[in-house]
């Protein structure tokens, strides 16, 4: 006999819960209907409370917000039971009822936003695209169906504002949850949790939409079967909270790179024109058109698209900056590479030749014995040694005074200093040699390393070229290497 996994058990329980509660709701009287929805909201709130008690760290915050939201929904359901089936009223008091319902949605939205905030920060473009599409779909639905239906039912302004706000907010939330699920920032095991949450939200949107579209113009009431959708919505919400990977849905990681493809551009373009196109079509046909709410929704979509464009512009500038850094710097050590060093030296030589600089010193540093360490202790150790040496040389150089330390490749470094060689040359060489006085501590032990150093210089107004300085410094370095080798062999 095959045993069901915990996730499969939650799915089976959610389906059974939805089926049973829907059946009882549809066959029961007003009191039974109210009791079913109220008990479901209590079940979800109790499950959230149990999760919150066991949660640790930041995950307690979204659970606390979820608990507040579902507690308010319990109050909404109790208000309906007290005033309608028990009190004999046709509808609950409109103001307090909608206020509590709106507050519950805001707390649930806040919980979703805080839980998904890390993904929003890491992939603002992808999540913003999803939210934009959610709002655009809601705006088009509002303009095409909801607003005309409320107008035909002669609904009061407060009901219209409420329906418009809730539809837009819930649709944006559904878009964000969907976007986070698509961009890969949530562990695969937690994807069903997002699916359950998205299902609960979408059913809530559908219930609100149908409640507005199918409202009776005479009585102001909607068909009773619409409220039965809340049983399925609560069952989906319970499955999201009770799922064994529920806490993992808050463990947002690094998302996949989000690219604004031609398909996404087309969808964003459709999002921009959908609401105005529907409004213009209805106006030309002589049908009722709600221009104010349509304009507000279109403004929200336009702002979101502009935010996306701004995010793309920032990402483009950041990419250009990274490419510039990669073009001018050595990847391993972070030092300026040969290309950057040559450019700096060329500019400095021009200043010295023109008498606008006191002089220049160029020092070549070539590590002795690096190849042996690299071959015997591994390339990873060799790379670590180069990084350690880089830090020592940077400390010996006067980086804060404009000295440029670069890596020419392999185990060769170069220091370029703008100074009067007569006063600074010996000091520069002494500081560079001092960087190798102590052994270097690596992860696999100590490494004794030395360096051959050769320098060349030019003073103010002295004719010189970049190539001449580099050649002289290179020859001086090799002369120092031969002298040091002869000394060791003597």
Automatic annotation (TrEMBL):
Source domain of life: Bacteria
Entry EC number(s): 2.7.7.65
Alphabetized Pfam families for the sequence: GGDEF
EC supergroup of this enzyme: transferase
Keywords: Membrane, Nucleotidyltransferase, Transferase, Transmembrane, Transmembrane helix
Residues that span the membrane, as ranges: 65-87, 99-120, 127-146, 161-182, 189-210, 230-253, 265-285, 291-309
GO MF term set: diguanylate cyclase activity
InterPro entries listed in its UniProt record: DGC-Regulatory_Protein, GGDEF_dom, Nucleotide_cyclase, Rev_trsase/Diguanyl_cyclase
GGDEF domain span: 358-490
PANTHER family named among the record's database cross-references: DIGUANYLATE CYCLASE DGCT-RELATED (PTHR46663), GGDEF DOMAIN-CONTAINING PROTEIN (PTHR46663:SF2)
Name the record gives this protein: GGDEF domain-containing protein
């Amino acid at each position: 006999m095959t045993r069901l996994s915990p996730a499969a058990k939650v799915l089976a329980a959610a389906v059974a819960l939805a089926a049973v509660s829907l059946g009882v709701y549809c066959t029961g009287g007003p009191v039974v209907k109210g009791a079913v929805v109220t008990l479901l909201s209590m079940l979800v709130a109790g499950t959230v409370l149990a999760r919150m008690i066991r949660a640790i760290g930041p995950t307690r915050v979204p659970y606390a917000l979820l608990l507040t939201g579902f507690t308010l929904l319990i109050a909404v359901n109790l208000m309906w039971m007290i005033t309608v089936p028990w009190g004999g009223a046709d509808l609950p008091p409109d103001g307090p009822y909608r206020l509590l319902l709106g507050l519950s949605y805001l707390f649930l939205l806040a919980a979703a936003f805080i839980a998904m905030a890390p993904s929003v920060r890491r992939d603002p473009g992808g999540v913003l695209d999803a939210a934009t599409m959610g709002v655009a779909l809601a705006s088009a639905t509002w303009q095409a169906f909801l607003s005309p239906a409320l107008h035909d039912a002669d609904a009061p302004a407060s009901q219209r504002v409420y329906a418009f706000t809730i539809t837009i907010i819930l649709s944006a939330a559904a878009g964000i949850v969907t976007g986070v699920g698509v961009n890969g920032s949530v562990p695969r095991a937690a994807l069903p949790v997002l699916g359950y949450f998205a299902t609960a939200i979408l059913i809530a949107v559908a219930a609100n939409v149908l409640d507005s579209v199918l409202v009776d113009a005479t009585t102001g009431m909607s068909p009773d079967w619409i409220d039965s959708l809340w049983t399925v919505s609560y069952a989906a919400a319970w499955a999201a909270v009770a799922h064994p990977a529920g806490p993992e849905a808050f463990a947002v990681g690094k998302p996949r790179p989000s690219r604004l493809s031609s398909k996404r551009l087309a969808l964003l373009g459709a999002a921009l024109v959908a609401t105005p196109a529907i409004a213009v079509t209805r106006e030309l046909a002589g049908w009722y058109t709600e221009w104010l709410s349509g304009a507000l929704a279109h403004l929200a979509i336009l702002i979101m698209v502009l935010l996306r464009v701004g995010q793309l512009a920032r990402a483009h500038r950041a990419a250009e900056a990274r490419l510039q850094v990669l073009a001018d710097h050595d990847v391993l050590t972070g030092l300026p590479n040969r290309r950057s060093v040559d450019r700096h030296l060329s500019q400095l030589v021009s200043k010295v030749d023109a008498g606008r600089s006191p002089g220049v010193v160029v020092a070549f540093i070539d590590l002795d014995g690096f190849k042996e360490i690299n071959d015997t202790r591994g390339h990873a150790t060799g790379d670590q040694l180069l990084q350690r040496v880089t830090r020592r040389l940077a400390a010996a150089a006067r980086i804060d005074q404009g000295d440029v330390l670069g890596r020419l490749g392999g185990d060769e470094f170069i220091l370029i200093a703008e100074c009067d060689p007569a006063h600074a040359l010996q000091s520069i060489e002494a500081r560079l040699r001092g960087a190798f006085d102590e052994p270097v501590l690596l992860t696999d032990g100590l490494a004794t390393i030395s360096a051959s150093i050769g320098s060349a210089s030019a003073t103010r107004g002295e004719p010189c070229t970049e190539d001449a300085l580099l050649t002289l410094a290179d020859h001086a370095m090799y002369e120092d290497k031969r002298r040091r080798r002869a000394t060791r062999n003597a």
